[in-house]
Specification:
Length: 363
């Protein structure tokens, strides 16, 4: 895992930002250099804002720490989590690009079964640029991949598909398990490379992992809020799950698609299962009520934008989940604050002036 990959021609170079949440030096970028160097990076520094994060030379990036988040958002900064990777959604907020790819700093370049290094970013872009098929399942999976097509019996009226909003990638080596599964399978590693991309059917929820994720910011960006997690909150490690559940309900309502499968990355580091259990235990209990809630959500027909859908969803969260625990009422309010911040940062007046980061470096 120490040899840099081979340089490639960058697709969507000026239309995509790479968002990385971190608390440490970003040495992992050296392995990704041939794939990431042509792109603009948005680094969201979590934890102590006085700590210096070292970024390898040659990358075009801007770095935001907690002081920057507080300065840019003012009172609305309360909706951005602290001491949790959920802070990554601040990068989604300030990006001016059409597409986002987000990755964790313990994820490295994986290899396919032939030994070839996988350009995860290029595969995400391919997934996002091709349609999805959420209304009717194709048994050859993604019909838009080379060498595949729609099978016999697939309705011709549905073969145009729908726009793809999200590309959800997977991981080799350390699987994305919850704490109880980590504890009973401490040595388990994912070695299975499944060469498949598929659309998640309409009406089906899924557990979204944020460590290897691409999305069309223009289509679904306002729904990509990773909630209130970490410092001062009763729950952690459900940030990407929350965003995934909200996003899936909204994409289903708006007629958009979500793909999962390729690309794989190499997840190098297993987090401490006992620490994870402390973060997750309320979520493990609560999700038995959260999942039926999302399965039952029906958004009104007049919710024709992501923002309108999300505000309506926040009302339902407060009404239906609020009685479970006061946290959900607080989360519902943060969802509204997030949309207010999104509209403020992304208003036409602010489009021409990107917020100043603490550290900006050009190639």
């Amino acid at each position: 895992m120490s040899t840099p990959a081979t340089l490639v021609n960058p697709p969507l170079k000026d239309e995509l930002d790479i968002v990385i949440p971190t608390i440490r030096n970003l040495d992992f970028l050296e392995m990704w250099r041939p794939f990431f160097q042509p792109y603009h990076l948005i680094i969201v520094q979590d934890g102590d804002p006085t700590k210096t994060i070292n970024v390898p030379e040659g990358f075009d990036y801007e770095l935001y720490n907690r002081n920057d988040i507080n300065r840019i958002l003012g009172p609305k900064a309360s909706c951005i989590s602290f001491k949790d990777s959920a802070c990554r959604c601040f990068g989604f907020l300030v990006s001016k690009k059409k597409y986002i790819f987000t990755i964790d700093d313990d994820c490295f370049v994986a290899k396919d079964p032939s030994g070839k290094e996988i350009n995860a970013l290029a595969q995400h872009i391919h997934n996002l640029l091709a349609p999805s098929t959420p209304l009717f399942f194709n048994t050859l999976y993604d019909p838009y991949r080379e060498g595949a097509d729609f099978v016999r019996g697939y309705p011709f009226s549905m073969r145009e598909g729908v726009p793809t909003a999200v590309s959800h990638g997977l991981w080799l080596n350390i699987p994305d398990y919850d704490a109880p599964t980590q504890l009973v399978k401490p040595r388990e590693r994912n070695t299975r490379y499944v060469d498949a991309v598929m659309t998640i059917p309409k009406g089906t929820l899924f557990p979204m992992c944020g460590m290897n994720l691409g999305f069309n910011r223009e289509l679904i960006g306002p729904a990509m809020y990773f909630g209130l997690m970490g410092d001062g909150q009763p729950i952690g490690r459900y940030d990407d799950m929350w965003a995934g559940w909200c996003t899936k309900v909204i994409t289903d309502h708006l007629g958009l698609g979500i793909k999962t499968g390729l690309p794989y990355i190499w997840h190098s580091k297993a987090s401490n299962p006992f620490v994870n259990l402390k973060k997750e235990y309320k979520g493990i209990y609560w999700q038995e009520e959260i999942i039926p809630f999302f399965q039952s959500v029906v958004l009104p027909k007049d919710c024709t934008t992501v923002q309108k859908c999300y505000i309506e969803l926040s009302k339902l969260v407060k009404e239906k989940l609020g009685p479970i625990d006061p946290y959900f009422s607080k989360l519902a309010e943060a969802m509204v604050t997030w949309i207010e911040a999104w509209d403020e940062i992304n208003s036409p007046a602010s489009e021409s002036t990107a917020p100043a980061a603490v550290d900006v470096k050009k190639k």
